[in-house]
Structures are given as structure tokens and as C-alpha cells.
Design a protein that fits this description.
Distance between the termini: 109 Å
Largest sheet: 2 strands, antiparallel
Structural class: mainly alpha
Strand content: 5-15%
Low-confidence stretches: 5-20
Shape: elongated
Helix content: 40-55%
Number of strands: 6
């Protein structure tokens, strides 16, 4: 082999090494991103993704990104999702994140006792969700926090929340339907904020149903008057309690027409496992809880005591 051929080979190898070295540097050097950022990667080909990352200042050389993506395509496809990109991420790091990283998760929270109308409002106001907003049936979901990836359909969140609710209703106790449990749990939810006393509230309602008594639950009357809400803006009157309404348990001798809110797990458990008691009445005790009574006379005394406490408060 002549000297010229040897130098030609050496020069060629040097060029390859130089290009290789430049490629390693170009794909491992820190990127232009100055702070950590959640970046939405839309569906598209390598060129579209590169341009999107350039606009978000994640990369500075789209061609390098595209070449690196092609040369490493055996590592997996680039996914469309929202990803968390750390500051200074190199092209190699960005490619790994787009292929193997976990998408950013968003949270939506439905508080216990929430109404269907308010659920629809929360879903509508969350711009990380997609799809139409449909008001679910009242009491249809289990109130809690749900994690989701950007672009998730709103009706998928409702479906997940409904499936979570069904887990609490399986298996059903003998003699009660899912509808009855959810109605009673919604009343318990609105009547008491204390987990410890909810089983006793549930027992009062069950005792009354067994004896053929009206449930006489204020939240049911308010729900009917407010058109599916609890923002009545005033105190209930005697005329309100006489109102012919399928939700007014001061008027009807039965369960209300349906749930009045989405009951939390504690209230559902209270109905499934009520306290052992023969109490038929309860009234607020002025400190966030309730006083329970077995007889109307005892209940009347408790009511009088509560009213006296209210009257003694500074005006």
C-alpha cells in the first residue's frame, strides 16, 4: 500500500472521528432551557416535534435533534404527551424523556358533599382536560382527587370516579339497593361533617324509615328549594317545610327522589355499617357536632338548649 493511500485512510478515519466527536458533543451538551418546564409534545413527525421543542427553547438545533432521533430510533418512538424537562437538558436527555419518561400528571379534586352542577363547573374550569362537559347524575361519583394526563377527556374522569364509587357498593348489603344507599349516604354527608358521628346519623335515618317516620332532613328541603344546590341564602321557613317537593323529606314520607350530593367514603361506610342505637332525633350541639335523642321530649329539650345557646351569642 502506497504512502498516499495510507494518508487517505488516516484522513478518512480522522474525519469520521471528528464527526463522531462533534455528534457526541452536540447531543450531550447542555441545552438552552434556563428553568425546569412542563412541555406539551403534540402528535407529529420528527420535524414537527423538533420545531415545537425549538419554540419552547428546549433545543437550539432542530437538525441535530432530528438526526439524533433517526440514528437512535431503535430506542423507541417519540411519544406525544406533556413531559417535565429539566433545565439544561441535552438532546440525548430530551430524547430519552420523550421515549421513556412519565407524562406530567394533573389533579382534579371533587370535595365530599359536592353537587353534580359543581362537578361540571370544576371539570369545565380545568384547561388540562379535553372534551365536552356533561353534568353527571347526582351522587354518581366518589369525591376524591384524581390524577390524569393532559388531554384526558372529561367524561373519562367521570367514568373513573363512578367506578371508584362502585367499589364501595360491592357487595350490597341485604335488603338495600345501591340507589337507597347513595341517597342515605348523601343525607348523612350533608348532615354531619364528623366521621365519628356519621354512623349514628345513618342509624337515625334507618330507624325512622323502619318505623314509617318522615326523615325531616333540612338539607333535602334546601336542595329542592335551591334547584339542586345548597346556596339558599336564607334560613328555612315553616312554609318551606310544607312545600310539596320530591326532595322535601318534611313533606314526603319516603326517601327523597334521589341523592342530594356526592357522598364521601365515610358517609357511605356509615350507611353500610350504621351505629347500634334506637335514636330517632338529632340537633346541632353548637360546637360542630350533634346531640341525639330517643324520644321527642328529650329532643325538644335539646332543641331548646341549642336555641338558648344561639340567643346567648353576641349579636
Amino acid at each position: 500500500m502506497g504512502r498516499r493511500a495510507v494518508w487517505t485512510i488516516v484522513a478518512g478515519l480522522g474525519g469520521i472521528l471528528a464527526v463522531g466527536g462533534w455528534g457526541v458533543y452536540a447531543t450531550t451538551a447542555p441545552g438552552p432551557l434556563k428553568v425546569d418546564r412542563d412541555v406539551v409534545v403534540a402528535k407529529g413527525n420528527g420535524a414537527a416535534i423538533a420545531e415545537s421543542l425549538l419554540r419552547d427553547q428546549v433545543i437550539s438545533q432542530p437538525l441535530v435533534f432530528r438526526l439524533a432521533a433517526v440514528l437512535t430510533r431503535g430506542d423507541g418512538a417519540l411519544r406525544a404527551a406533556e413531559f417535565h424537562i429539566p433545565r439544561g437538558a441535552s438532546v440525548r436527555q430530551v430524547l430519552w424523556i420523550l421515549r421513556h419518561g412519565k407524562p406530567v400528571l394533573h389533579l382534579v379534586t371533587f370535595p365530599e358533599g359536592i353537587t353534580a352542577a359543581r362537578i361540571a363547573q370544576i371539570l369545565a374550569q380545568n384547561d388540562a382536560l379535553s372534551g365536552d362537559v356533561v353534568v353527571p347524575p347526582e351522587g354518581y361519583i366518589l369525591p376524591q382527587t384524581y390524577a390524569f394526563a393532559r388531554g384526558t377527556e372529561r367524561d373519562e374522569i367521570i367514568s373513573r370516579a363512578h367506578q371508584a364509587l362502585l367499589k364501595y357498593l360491592t357487595p350490597l348489603p341485604p335488603g338495600m339497593s345501591a340507589r337507597e344507599i347513595l341517597i342515605l349516604a348523601s343525607l348523612v354527608e350533608r348532615e354531619s361533617a364528623l366521621d365519628r358521628e356519621r354512623p349514628l346519623v345513618a342509624r337515625v335515618f334507618l330507624n325512622r324509615l323502619q318505623l314509617g317516620m318522615k326523615l325531616q332532613s333540612d338539607p333535602t328541603a334546601i336542595y329542592g328549594l335551591a334547584g339542586g344546590d345548597f346556596s339558599l341564602g336564607r334560613a328555612l321557613t315553616r312554609d318551606d317545610l310544607k312545600r310539596d317537593d320530591p326532595y322535601n323529606t318534611y313533606f314526603i314520607l319516603a326517601l327523597p327522589a334521589g341523592p342530594i350530593c356526592a357522598a364521601g367514603a365515610s358517609s357511605i361506610e356509615a350507611v353500610l355499617h350504621p351505629a347500634d342505637s334506637d335514636a330517632l332525633y338529632f340537633v346541632a350541639d353548637g360546637s360542630g357536632g350533634h346531640v341525639f335523642a330517643r324520644s321527642l321530649s328529650d329532643h325538644s329539650r335539646n332543641v331548646a338548649r341549642y336555641r338558648a345557646q344561639k340567643e346567648a351569642l353576641p349579636k
